[in-house]
Design goal:
It is elongated and about 140 Å long. A five-stranded antiparallel beta sheet has the order 4-3-7-11-10, with no helix packed on it. By secondary structure, it is an all-beta fold. About 0% of the residues lie in helices and about 45% in strands.
Length: about 600
């Protein structure tokens, strides 16, 4: 009740008794018990309504007839009561009903029905409409007239029984529960229109099936008939008021006996399509009789199929692209205008048997802007995700052929202000167990690393460890291959088995070698480098100078910053070391 009050609607409550047939005049009381009506917070108290009723159903006289009496029903000037046959209701035919006057009957409902087949055909509600001279109701005179509108022709066929049912109402709303109702009264008649003679030939099949989506630009339409026919018209239409109609007859060809007709719209037609197309095929048999289709009547009957084709919609740049993979799991889509899962449809993977084996995990999506930043980590704002990653609900590692099916509208392209969707496409993959070999690389005194390479592929290893050092030797499985190093890289061609590379290094520059002690000029300062028992002594440095000690093949012994003028570094004896003071180096036998 609150809603009706707020919207200023009527607050009246209409109640209709399910069975109440009072045929005696007198005073009657309607008792409404407490709680019968409620507005959600309160309810009514018990109340009685009384009124005086005069029954007129049994009275005689022209003003208040007890029954609805239909004197005539005319269609197109033919009174069905006197001539109980009719061929059709044509557009603009007058329908006139005369009854014994009932002043309260402001509307008549007139319904036409196929009695033989129990089918409703057409109905009219005749009430006075001052602005429409075609519809006239004069209850006091018992006269009601209307005109059949539209373009439809309702045919009544010979050998079939039909009926016209007339019902009077005291309001212009037949469903009003307070109506006084007169009738119904029924008039029957026979149809006289001879049924149209169609060809005995039928449509056996159409391929692709009605409602299919065209995804192949070479897709033909094949319609098969039960006997030879001539197709004299084929049209393709987008439908609607602004429809585009294309004559497809030039692209329709029969087989040798004319039972199979193939329509080839062509790749340019399909590839430029971005909507649905209705194909309408009109055919006649060898005797000139029309083959009955699923649309249209009589000579205008035709067979229609509708196909969606959205090949003009864009594709999506998907990675990995079609080809061999070791695992099918993660994917990346990119588009500079913006890209992401649309949530309209879920991409899925099928196997060779066409069975769905995995779907995209829609919650796995991560979108990145042009700077490679996950936009979910950014503050609120309008961001364009030019890349999105997502993965399947489970990885596919079992060898075999698989297809990722991307339904139309699975991906959103662009922004919310200027967006579009992808067309349907499939991406084929072959999952294989790829044989691999292991490569161990030891850069002596610098690093150790291992990696895998596909068997039969080339493996190139970079060998530069750091500044000031150069490669001294390189062995492959114990064999010296130093001469094959180019630009500090070595390539194992078409590797077939596990391999081990060992590289040794030496200082990249020629430096003075001192035996037990010596003086080095470092930026004008005289620095003494000498053996001091099991240590190397560096004397004359300033606070902040850097002293590094290496073995000749690059092992770091020390890397210190001077805090006083003498620095002493412990080193195993019996070796040659490289001492670097700031950027000046010297070798010492220790």
């Amino acid at each position: 009740m609150t809603m009706f009050y707020d919207m200023e609607m009527s607050q009246d409550l209409i109640v209709k008794c399910s069975a109440l047939d009072i045929k005696e005049s007198g005073t009657y009381t309607l008792h409404v018990p407490a709680g019968f009506v409620t507005d959600g917070t309160s309810s009514n108290e018990a109340v009685d309504f009384s009124w005086t009723y005069t029954y007129t159903g049994g009275s005689e006289g022209p003003d208040t007839p007890a029954e609805l009496v239909v004197k005539s029903v005319s269609v197109g000037g033919v009174d069905i009561k006197t001539t109980p046959t009719l061929a059709a209701i044509n557009p603009n035919d007058e329908i006139v009903v005369n009854i014994d006057p009932i002043p309260e009957a402001v509307m008549l409902a007139v319904e036409f029905k196929d009695v033989t087949n129990d089918e409703y055909i057409r109905g009219f509600e005749i009430r006075d409409i001052p602005t429409n001279p075609d519809v006239v109701a004069k209850p006091a005179e018992g006269y009601y007239r209307t005109v059949a509108g539209g373009n439809a022709v309702n045919k009544f066929y010979a050998g079939t029984e039909y009926s016209i049912t007339v019902t009077g109402y005291s309001s212009i709303n037949a469903g009003d529960p307070t109506n006084m109702v007169w009738g119904p009264q029924t008039v029957t008649f026979e149809g006289t229109t001879e049924p149209y003679k169609y060809s005995p030939v039928t449509v056996v099949s159409v391929s692709p099936a009605d409602g299919a989506e065209i995804t192949d630009a070479s897709q033909p339409i094949v319609i098969t008939y039960s006997a030879p026919v001539d197709v004299d018209k084929v049209e393709a239409s987008t439908g609607g008021q602004m429809s585009t109609i294309v004559d497809m007859l030039p692209y329709a060809t029969p087989n040798a006996d004319k039972t199979v007709w193939t329509i080839k719209p062509g790749s340019s037609f399909w590839e430029s399509s971005d909507n649905s197309w209705m194909f309408m095929v009109y055919a006649k048999d060898e005797n000139g009789l029309v083959v009955k289709g699923n649309f249209g009547e009589d000579a205008d009957s035709y067979y229609q199929v509708t196909y969606g084709c959205y090949m003009a919609w864009p594709l999506v740049d998907l990675s990995p692209a079609s080809g061999m993979v070791e695992e099918l799991y993660s994917f990346t889509i990119t588009n500079p205008k913006g890209i992401g899962l649309s949530w309209n449809y879920v991409p899925y993977v099928i196997n060779e048997a066409g069975e769905t084996v995995a779907k995209v995990d829609m919650n796995s999506q991560i979108q990145y802007d042009a700077n490679g930043t996950d936009i979910s980590t950014l503050p609120m704002g309008d961001y364009v995700a030019v890349k999105a990653t997502f993965h399947l609900t489970a990885p596919i590692t079992e060898p075999g052929k698989y297809t990722l099916v991307s339904p139309r509208s699975a991906y959103a392209i662009g922004t919310q202000y200027e967006g579009e969707y992808n067309r349907y496409f499939e991406t084929e993959y072959t999952v294989v167990k790829m044989p691999k070999v292991k490569v161990d690389v030891e850069l002596v005194n610098f690093a150790n690393v291992s990696f895998e390479v596909l068997e039969g592929k080339d493996a190139t290893v970079g060998l530069t460890p750091s500044a000031d050092w150069k490669l001294a030797t390189l062995t492959l499985n114990g064999e010296d291959v130093t001469s094959d190093v180019a630009d500090n890289a070595y390539t194992i061609a078409a590797i077939e088995a596990d391999a081990k590379l060992v590289a040794t290094y030496e200082y990249a520059y020629e430096v003075e070698t001192i035996q037990t002690s010596g003086v080095v000029d470092v930026a004008g300062k005289q620095i003494t480098v000498a053996n001091d028992g099991d240590r190397i002594s560096v004397e004359g440095v300033a606070e902040g100078d850097t002293i590094k000690v290496y073995t000749v093949n690059g092992m770091v012994i020390a890397n210190v910053v001077a805090e006083q003028d003498i620095v002493k570094i412990s080193c195993p004896t019996g070796q040659v070391y490289i001492v670097v003071i700031n950027d000046k180096a010297v070798k010492i036998q220790h």
